[in-house]
Amino acid sequence: MNEENKSLKSSLKKSNSANSYPLMENIFLLKAGKRRTQKLLPWINLSSLQGKLIWIQNFLDIQQTFSTVVKYQQKIKTNRTPFKIVVLGSDVFITEILRSYVDILSKTQKPLELIKFYILPIGKKIDIALHIASLDSQYRTLFIHSNWKNLFDEQEKFTNQEIEFIVSSMDKYIYGGKYTTLLNINEAFLTIKGEDSDSLIIQKTIPFLKSMKIGEQKDFEKQNEHVSEPPRVSLDYWVRHQKDKKEIKEKDEKKKESKKERKDKKITKHVTLEFVVATPLRTIALALKLDQNELPISGESFSLLTVYTDKKRNLSSKKETKYQRRALQISKLLAKTLDNKKGFVVNIDSIDWTGVSLITIRPQWNSQTKYFPLAVFNKV
Hints:
Elements: H1 3-14, E1 26-31, H2 35-40, E2 52-56, H3 59-75, E3 83-89, H4 91-105, E4 115-121, H5 127-135, H6 137-143, H7 146-153, H8 160-176, E5 179-184, E6 186-192, E7 202-208, E8 212-214, E9 233-239, H9 259-263, E10 267-271, E11 273-279, E12 302-309, E13 323-337, E14 344-348, E15 351-362, E16 371-376
Parallel strand pairs: 1-2, 1-3, 3-4
Antiparallel strand pairs: 5-16, 6-7, 6-15, 8-11, 8-14, 9-10, 9-13, 11-12, 12-13, 13-15, 14-15
């Protein structure tokens, strides 16, 4: 066992003492073995926030950490203040934190009173941080710019000036982020099958904060380039009725109805689905970006963007666009592969899941822990 893991085990063991408070109500969580966070290690203690630094080796370490936080809070009967948990890393690390959070906190009472998260973006994939920046301009000013990113991308050690800049930015957020915004925790249920018929079928329920995308992301980085054949998917989604909030199902039958009638119904179509984004936060599709003001977003529904081949359009001319897109506010999505030999690729908060044959998306996690409490500078 290395020294980092020993330190974690020791901290967690001490926390079982009824009269000891080793976590000091503040902890820093970093992913062990990552070059960018490893580079930051010597300077974390320069932050004026007094807290315990915990290196995370694996998912079990995160589970043990949250269990310790819960036990600690339960021992304090009065004047409980939320734990400040500072997460330093990319979307992949934040997703690991989220999985453990919903697992441990779902078993406690009033979980939102226990923890307050501070996310410091370090790494290549920071879509969750980009969403926070869209909500909070001060957060965007501190962390969403090339200077912050380049500091961790470079191999060289930090200069004294860079160290001062990093620590100052951290402290401004940790002490200035006095408000809490509650990000919806969404639910993805996946059925994954192997490459052959004898392979085991795996089912997973995954919490996520920002987006779900179907299709190869690399195909859409450049809008005008040739794209590979997209996955063939049967898509069902439910559109919430605007007047009485009822959900109505429309069967795939030949009916003559007005556009207004069709707008508020569940639509089931077999299409060649090339890209789908479903998120309660905002709709993004890499090169195909939907204006956030086009569609009202509520905490009980998704904004859905579908991109598919328009068979009615003459595609012989290269100047003709090959795609159409439509946006709807939905409360549930179900996508199923039409190819029995292989599944499709699903990207959930920057993590790829391959061989997916079925996915169901809902805008609310299925336990009492439905929100992720995040520190921001202003009321959102």
